[in-house]
Amino acid sequence: MQTSSDDATAFKTIPFTWPKGYKSDGVHAGLRQDKKDMGWIYSEVPAQAAGTYTTNQFQAAPTKLTKKLINQDHQLQAVIMNSANANSVTGDQGDKDAIKTTQLVADKLNIDQNLVGVASTGVIGEPLPMDIITKGIEQLKLTDNHDVTSAILTTDKHPKTVSTQVQIFGKTVTISGFCKGSGMIHPNMATMLGFVLTDASVASGLLQPMLSQEVDKTFNQITVDGDTSTNDMVVTMANGEADNQELTTDSPDYPAFVQAFNYVLSTLAQDIAADGEGSTKLVEVNVKNAANSDDGQKVAKAIVGSNLVKTAIFGQDANWGRIIAAIGQTNAKVDLNHTSIWLNDLALVKNSASAHFDEAVMKQALAQDKITILVDLNVGDATGQAWGCDLTYSYVRINASYRS
């Protein structure tokens, strides 16, 4: 059970499950060898929808189309997904293929085409093989299985899933999320697809600002390699099948819902960071006593994004100068004489000077699977948090042969 300081905002984690009113499937259509490569999610009724999208200027055809559809009516009923081919930088034909894909799904499900989103991930610049896409859609069924969570994977080591439940106006509401991503991951979206489904009834216009706010705190606070891809998005759907009283920002249970929603996004974000291509360690950076939250977030992201910090962690080298340098590269306000740093609760730096730590003890701490760095900027009372991973030889090997 996860709880805040107020028991009224308690929520619980549960084994991964679909909220009420959702179906899905995943199949091997032939885009990849011997792996599931196409899937969908479907709501039995049209759902409120919101999305956040990559900031890359070469935004892929499926990303552009889904953004347009959500911005149009703020509703979706289905999302069709494929891996192996990004349908990105594919010109007018790529746009036509994305639209054709949604038409095929709409026809099969007998729903409005404007309620079908599309998401793709994989190699950039290759035309979408529509014969295979058509074959895959023909195979898909409406089931309770979770195969879609595998169908979207590329270099990921495993599916990333999480479910929670929270009481809203006396009704049990489920929030479930799944995502993919392990490389080309950087703040402001990256080569990741994320989907968060809930059976909560929420007021029109509530979902988008809430998603944008929580993505800024979670998915936009992870980095693997500093690259931002062309296809990334996080989409959330709320179909109201839990039959709760409609949730608004003034509802007494709204904070509980936001807390549970944040937990889903935060868990998925950390799972992506931990599954970074070739990674051996999850790195979490917490900043305290920052001048404001923007500074706190900025410093945390700078540290997890530093290749010198990432390689030092991989090599189990307690070179705290790299952390100080990463902090100093930002324009955040810092007490230059009284900044302190801890690594897995062991003091590295006190008042901007070495804490004279035991190298052997620190090396042992750096051998752990999760490395937590705490930074005290000593200039205010705001905080920041970000997640990343170490940078290893395997990262180069994986990305040197991505297309082969």
Automatic annotation (TrEMBL):
Q: Pathway of this protein? A: Amino-acid biosynthesis; L-arginine biosynthesis; N(2)-acetyl-L-ornithine from L-glutamate: step 1/4; Amino-acid biosynthesis; L-arginine biosynthesis; L-ornithine and N-acetyl-L-glutamate from L-glutamate and N(2)-acetyl-L-ornithine (cyclic): step 1/1
The source's domain of life comes to Bacteria
- Protein's UniProt keywords contain Nucleotide-binding: no
Q: Which PANTHER family match?
A: ARGININE BIOSYNTHESIS BIFUNCTIONAL PROTEIN ARGJ (PTHR23100), ARGININE BIOSYNTHESIS BIFUNCTIONAL PROTEIN ARGJ, MITOCHONDRIAL (PTHR23100:SF0)
Relate the assembly described in the record. Heterotetramer of two alpha and two beta chains.
Give the UniProt subcellular location, in the record's own words.
Cytoplasm
Protein family (similarity comment): Belongs to the ArgJ family.
Q: Function of this protein?
A: Catalyzes two activities which are involved in the cyclic version of arginine biosynthesis: the synthesis of N-acetylglutamate from glutamate and acetyl-CoA as the acetyl donor, and of ornithine by transacetylation between N(2)-acetylornithine and glutamate.
Gene Ontology molecular function: L-glutamate N-acetyltransferase activity; L-glutamate N-acetyltransferase activity, acting on acetyl-L-ornithine as donor
**Record's protein name:** Arginine biosynthesis bifunctional protein ArgJ
Q: Enumerate the residues marked as the site Cleavage.
A: 190-191
What organism is this sequence from?
Answer: Companilactobacillus versmoldensis DSM 14857 = KCTC 3814
Its Gene Ontology cellular component terms are:
cytoplasm
Catalytic residues at 191 (nucleophile)
Q: Name one GO biological process term.
A: ornithine biosynthetic process
The residues the record assigns to binding substrate are: 154, 180, 191, 277, 399, 404
Which residues bear the site annotation Involved in the stabilization of negative charge on the oxyanion by the formation of the oxyanion hole?
Answer: 121-122
What EC number is given for this enzyme? Answer: 2.3.1.35, 2.3.1.1
**Which keywords are on file for this protein?**
Acyltransferase, Amino-acid biosynthesis, Arginine biosynthesis, Autocatalytic cleavage, Cytoplasm, Multifunctional enzyme, Transferase
**Which Pfam families has this protein been placed in?**
ArgJ
Task: Give the CDD domains listed for this entry.
Answer: OAT
Q: Which reaction does it catalyse?
A: L-glutamate + acetyl-CoA = N-acetyl-L-glutamate + CoA + H(+); N(2)-acetyl-L-ornithine + L-glutamate = N-acetyl-L-glutamate + L-ornithine
